[in-house]
Amino acid sequence: MAPKKKTVKKESKKDALQTGDIEGASVEELNQKIGTLEKEKNKEEEYRNYMQLERDKINAFWEITKKDLEDRRAELRNKDREMEEMEERHQVEIKELAHQDIIRQLKLEHAKEITKLRQEFELQAKELQQKYEKKMKMLRDDMELRRKQIIKALQYDVAKVSKAHNDLIRVYEAKLTEFGIPVDELGFRPLVTNTSTGPAGLVVGA
After folding, report:
1. Which burial class, exposed, middle or buried, applies to 176 when counting CB atoms under 10 A from its CB (0-12, 13-18, 19+)?
2. Which of 4, 83, 175, 177 is most exposed, with minimal Cβ within 10 Å?
3. Which phi and psi (to 5°) does residue 196 adopt?
4. pLDDT (tens digit per residue) in 7-38
5. Where would I find the H helices in the chain?
6. What digits encode the pLDDT tens for the residues 54-94?
7. Greatest extent of the chain over all pairs of C-alpha atoms, in Å
């Protein structure tokens, strides 16, 4: 079977104008071509203007976004500093609270120690007072006993001296009588005490 022959399609003038071949085109066709090119040019300019506007919008949006991002970063840095400062203040407050708690605990322990010392002091003072009162009672009792003993001894000595005095007067009067001298002639009367007139151990001579 013989191969088919290729058929060559003849291009029209309109197709030739669309492909850029303007040779042999009429004035009307050229005007149409120019109009078409101007429309395409206007479309391209509109598209370029649109793209320029979009690019400006994108750039403006990027600038706004970048500024907002920088503001957010600055805000985050400020927040970080605030958090650090708050943490530092918190740590200081914790230390102060711990310090205050230690001071409060020390004061409480000091108060307990003072109370304990006061109680011990009061107990010791009470014991000393009791010992003092007991010792003073013993001393008063001893002094009272000694006073009674001294008074009794003095009374005994006074009685002994008085008895000796009375015995001496009796001996004296006996001697006067023995020598025949009346007592009235002496010019005084020997004083006899009110103490017992019992003998004091003196012997009257015969």
Report:
1. middle
2. 4
3. -50, 140
4. 444 445 455 445 455 566 678 888 888 888 88
5. 13-18, 27-178
6. 888 888 888 888 888 888 888 888 888 888 888 888 888 88
7. 228
Higher pLDDT among residues 140 and 179, named by residue: 140
What is the DSSP annotation of 118-171? HHHHHHHHHHHHHHHHHHHHHHHHHHHHHHHHHHHHHHHHHHHHHHHHHHHHHH
| Number of domains comprising the chain | 1
pLDDT tens for 118-151 read 899 888 888 888 888 888 888 888 889 888 999 9
Q: Which domain holds residue 98?
A: 25-186
10 in a structural domain:
no
Tokens of 116: 């304990």
The one-character DSSP state at 196 is -
- Is 61 within the bounds of a domain? yes
